[in-house]
């Protein structure tokens, strides 16, 4: 990178449409321009796409800055103390530095909103957003965070989240974006410009006349060729070379880094590898095996399968394995619907060029622009390579048909990604829900097989009634569907089922009307393969699917039950979902695997727990004769996890219990200042305890990150930071996530009463078993055990704390059964007042034994 102040040789500069600009970035106290304040402002002037000058200043806020913000921005209170509040003088310096040059920022609308609040005339010039542009030009990356993007493009980052460095990185990425846009084919650039519309500011970066190139303001511009002339060859860093534009899994050899503390020793990995190779030789081997749920263990299993394939020449399919397991030695199986349909894509691009997509929402048009860019260079045609955001329905419109019924009449059949997948005898990877007609396999290994129960729900009849009503409203057809309107307002599933027959007729008539309107609007569309214009017909196809789903939900079945669910949708709005759920989903999940690929060998870190319970075996589809065998190394992992059972005072109400948790978490945090994760059964309880605790932790120099408040599951990335507490829900843990040193379970995660559990309890009762224990308690214990098991599998000394006052005495029938799932862990029972001292003692013993 060129040093600041060094003059540029314009003859050597890359010809780009916007060579001179000012990149800018802010650090703020929070995300709201109305409630939060600026801490730092930085601007970097770029000449011919390279940094030339820098200006920055600290801004003193009107109230104390949260510790979390200081840690994120790497700004200290000492740096802020001598600074001044934002003033007219700072505004003048900003205007003088930037002049009339265009501005560049990453997610620039955020920074513009803050500065626009204190500078009414800001920005007053063109502003380019590198976040939006990188998603189009570099479509196929897994993350577009500024630091991740810089890493992929080979842009050095000195100090992330400091305004001056982030501004320089964003400005450099803007140059690379322009270079990347120029490398795209002329047709692709024109398609992107048409998709994004005439009013799209960066349009001229893709579809440009010669005069739209901005001349250099710092010297004599070079002669710039027009769009029909060859673009000069660009100098490219290795990380940015076009051949590295594959998916992240390909670019990293199919592997991702395992966080510290997750991998068992190399000897353990070798032991698993040998055991897997041996068991594949045994024809009468047990079908269920216990194995650590870590990436390293998954790789060991895969490598054992590879050894077996090389030795015998037989085939092995690996189902449901975590990302980062495979590399070039492994194949991959995908469904036809996972691939881009070249026929649909070509038709969509014709419509884009004709301006037919001008009425789509901006995010859908951006996604189509990303597909246009990515399709030019993809080798595999897998749509999963491109970030979907909120456009799964648009993605489905561009995918190959699930049954490939078009193959005999498709003009693109010889180039079709789905039809030209080469079979392989090497071990291959497949998703749990991607096993439709995958051919014959001699051995099948299923990772964390209990997930098959969840995967089976994806194939069950399910209809979002709220989405149905929204589509009917968009098409102007709500007046034609009175039964559907009643369904969306009804909460009793029995009543809904009486309305379904007439609702099906209404939706079918709505399909005919919607298709007629589509044909009238796009009468010029003709295709020998497609029955309607891609994307523009998505509402028609949604209504067709809705009519079919309503019919399937209405069908009688002894193994499934119709239910009306109310999950949270986009923006936290309650949705109404009508579905038919399997009574024992494991039966359906494993049956689908057996039907597609044969009898599987089942692997799970929870095999011992599942096989010890009649209810869990029934739920996950295991026969009575199933036996579990361990593939784990001979290490005493359970002895390294202390079960600290807190004898709590009775908590008569929700607010009192939240206060009890505040006191407990605060006591533990003062001892366990790193790696403390608190699991909650609901986001509502997270918010309540967060509001009680965040200030008290701040006063003690600690930061609290909470899922749903500070982001999604990525808050777990902060677990390895000192003086940090992380709140999260009890979603199934992923192998690649950090493992806590101290895991606190706030409450036993019982699910709300539902009709399916009532039917399951009835069957357990008929077998002479305790129905509540076998159905509800076992499931709740398994959820917690999944998290504790990761601590055990890490073979690193840690603590599991249970804080539910109803479970901890262990005196009721259900609490005894719940606690029995953790009976092999070293256990201490104590009141809240002794928790900190017992935890300190355990940690000291660990430190003393450490070499």
Describe this structure in words.
The protein is 40% helix and 13% strand. With 851 residues, it is of the alpha/beta class. β4, α4 and β5 form a beta-alpha-beta unit. The longest helix has 29 residues. The chain is globular, with a radius of gyration of 29 Å.
Task: Give a brief outline of the structure.
With 851 residues, this protein is of the alpha/beta class.
What layout of secondary structure does this protein have?
Blueprint: E1 21-28, E2 38-47, E3 50-58, H1 67-73, H2 77-80, H3 88-98, E4 103-105, H4 108-118, E5 127-129, H5 130-137, H6 146-153, H7 163-183, H8 186-196, H9 248-251, H10 266-281, E6 288-290, H11 295-312, E7 316-319, E8 331-332, H12 342-353, H13 362-375, H14 392-397, E9 428-430, E10 443-446, H15 451-456, E11 462-464, H16 465-474, H17 482-488, H18 493-521, H19 538-554, E12 560-565, E13 577-582, H20 585-597, E14 601-604, H21 607-611, H22 614-619, E15 628-630, E16 641-647, H23 654-669, E17 676-680, H24 683-699, E18 703-706, E19 724-729, E20 742-745, H25 755-766, H26 771-794, E21 798-802, H27 813-820, E22 827-831, H28 832-849
Parallel strand pairs: 1-4, 4-5, 6-14, 6-15, 7-9, 7-10, 8-9, 10-14, 16-21, 16-22, 17-19, 17-20, 18-19, 20-21
Antiparallel strand pairs: 1-2, 2-3, 11-13, 12-13
Helix pairs in contact: 5-7, 5-13, 6-7, 8-12, 8-13, 10-11, 16-17, 17-18, 18-19, 23-24, 23-28, 25-26, 26-27
């Amino acid at each position: 990178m060129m040093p600041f102040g060094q003059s540029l040789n314009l003859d050597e500069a890359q010809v780009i449409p916007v060579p001179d600009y000012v990149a800018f970035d802010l650090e703020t106290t929070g995300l709201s321009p109305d409630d939060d304040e600026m801490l730092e402002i930085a601007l970097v002037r770029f000449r011919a796409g390279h940094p030339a000058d820098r200006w920055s200043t600290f801004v003193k806020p009107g109230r104390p800055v949260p510790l979390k913000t200081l840690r994120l921005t790497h700004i200290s209170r000492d740096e802020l103390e001598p600074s001044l509040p934002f003033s007219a003088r700072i505004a003048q310096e900003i205007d003088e530095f930037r002049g009339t040059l265009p501005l560049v920022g990453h997610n620039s609308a955020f920074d513009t909103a803050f500065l626009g609040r204190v500078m009414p005339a800001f920005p007053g010039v063109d502003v380019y957003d590198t976040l939006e542009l990188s998603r189009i030009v570099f479509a196929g990356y897994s993350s577009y965070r500024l630091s991740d993007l810089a890493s992929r493009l080979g842009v050095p980052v000195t100090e992330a989240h400091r305004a001056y460095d982030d501004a320089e990185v964003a400005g450099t990425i803007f140059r690379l974006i322009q270079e990347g846009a120029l490398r795209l084919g002329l047709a692709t650039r024109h398609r992107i410009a048409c998709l994004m519309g005439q009013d799209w500011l960066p349009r001229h970066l893709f579809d440009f006349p010669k005069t739209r190139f901005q001349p250099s303001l710092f010297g004599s511009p070079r002669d710039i060729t027009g769009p029909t002339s060859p673009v000069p060859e660009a100098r490219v860093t290795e990380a940015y070379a076009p051949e590295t534009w594959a998916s992240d899994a390909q670019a990293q050899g199919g592997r991702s880094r395992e966080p510290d503390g997750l991998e068992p020793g190399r000897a353990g990995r070798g032991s698993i590898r040998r055991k897997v190779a041996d068991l594949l030789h045994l024809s009468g081997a047990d079908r269920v095996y216990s194995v650590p749920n870590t990436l390293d263990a998954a790789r060991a299993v895969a490598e054992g399968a590879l050894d077996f394939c090389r030795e015998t020449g037989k085939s092995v399919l690996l189902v449901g394995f975590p990302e980062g397991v495979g590399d070039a030695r492994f194949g991959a199986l995908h469904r036809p619907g996972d691939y881009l349909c070249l026929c649909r894509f070509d038709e969509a691009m014709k419509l884009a060029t004709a301006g037919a997509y001008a009425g789509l929402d901006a995010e859908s048009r951006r996604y189509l622009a990303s597909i246009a860019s990515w399709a030019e260079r993809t080798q595999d045609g897998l749509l999963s390579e491109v970030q979907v955001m909120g456009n799964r329905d648009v993605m489905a419109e561009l995918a190959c048909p699930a049954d490939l019924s078009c193959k005999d009449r498709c003009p693109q059949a010889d180039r079709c990604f789905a039809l030209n997948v080469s079979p392989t005898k090497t071990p291959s990877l497949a998703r749990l829900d991607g096993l439709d007609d995958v051919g014959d396999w001699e051995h099948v290994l299923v990772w964390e097989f209990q997930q098959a129960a969840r995967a089976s729900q994806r194939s069950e009849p399910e209809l979002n009634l709220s989405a149905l009503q929204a589509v009917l409203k968009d098409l102007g057809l709500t007046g034609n569907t009175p039964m559907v309107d009643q369904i969306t307002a009804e909460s009793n599933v029995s009543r809904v089922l009486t309305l379904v027959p007439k609702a099906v007729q209404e939706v079918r008539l709505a399909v005919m009307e919607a298709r007629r309107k589509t044909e009238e609007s796009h009468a010029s569309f003709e295709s020998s393969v497609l029955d309607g214009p891609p994307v523009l017909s998505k509402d028609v196809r949604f209504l067709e699917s809705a009519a079919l789903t309503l019919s399937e939900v209405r069908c009688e079945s002894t193994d499934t039950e119709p239910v009306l669910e109310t999950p949270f949708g986009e923006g936290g709005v309650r949705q109404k979902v009508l579905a038919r759920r399997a009574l024992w989903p494991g039966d359906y999940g494993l049956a689908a695997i057996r039907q597609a690929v044969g009898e599987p060998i089942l692997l799970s870190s929870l095999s011992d727990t599942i096989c010890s319970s009649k209810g869990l075996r029934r739920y996950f589809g295991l026969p009575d004769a199933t036996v579990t065998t361990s593939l784990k190394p001979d290490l005493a992992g359970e002895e390294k996890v202390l079960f600290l059972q807190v004898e709590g005072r009775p908590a008569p109400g929700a607010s009192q219990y939240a206060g009890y948790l505040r006191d407990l978490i605060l006591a533990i945090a003062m001892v366990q200042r790193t790696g403390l994760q608190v699991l909650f059964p609901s986001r509502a309880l997270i918010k309540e305890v967060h509001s009680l605790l965040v200030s008290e932790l701040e006063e003690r120099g600690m930061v609290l990150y909470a899922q749903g408040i500070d982001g999604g599951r990525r808050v777990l990335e902060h677990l390895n930071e000192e003086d940090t507490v992380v709140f999260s829900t009890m979603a199934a843990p992923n192998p690649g996530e950090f493992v806590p040193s101290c895991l606190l379970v706030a409450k036993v995660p019982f699910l709300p009463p539902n009709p399916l559990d009532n039917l399951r309890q009835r069957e357990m009762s008929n077998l002479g078993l305790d129905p509540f224990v076998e159905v509800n308690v076992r499931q709740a214990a398994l959820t917690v055990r999944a998290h504790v098991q990761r601590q055990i599998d890490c073979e690193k000394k840690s603590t599991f704390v249970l804080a539910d006052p109803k479970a901890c005495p262990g005196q009721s029938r259900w609490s005894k059964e719940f606690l029995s799932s953790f009976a092999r862990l070293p256990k201490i029972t104590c009141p809240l007042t002794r928790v900190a001292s017992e935890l300190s003692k355990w940690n000291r013993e660990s430190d003393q034994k450490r070499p």
